[in-house]
Design brief:
The chain has one helix and six strands. The chain has a single domain, classed as Copper binding periplasmic protein CusF (OB fold (Dihydrolipoamide Acetyltransferase, E2P), Beta Barrel). The N and C termini lie far apart (about 55 Å). β5 and β6 form a beta hairpin. Helix content is about 20%, strand content about 45%. It is α+β, with helices and mostly antiparallel strands and about 80 residues long.
Length: about 80
């Protein structure tokens, strides 16, 4: 019984290792690189795919960014302005 349980736990850990978890970060935009399509809030840099618009955002804007992390890359899925 314990061997079966250990095998199931191990299989679950292996399968979930490749799943990217979604996260949110809120704060003022510290830096932007429009060519690389990156935005930095605090020490977190997020890369934006072409389907997520950065139009209207500048350094100093307070935002909330929803992103996923795969490997060492944070990829945005959404960005929205937040009232201060």
């Amino acid at each position: 019984m314990n061997k079966v349980f250990a095998a199931l736990v191990g299989a679950t850990m292996v399968l979930s290792a490749g799943v990217a978890a979604a996260a949110d970060i809120k704060g003022d935009i510290k830096a932007m690189n429009m060519e690389a399509r990156t935005v930095t809030i605090g020490t977190t840099t997020v890369t934006f795919p072409q389907n997520v618009s950065l139009s209207g955002y500048i350094v100093g804007t307070t935002v909330i960014i929803t992103y996923t992390t795969a490997g060492n890359v944070n990829t945005a899925t959404a960005i929205a302005k937040v009232a201060k």
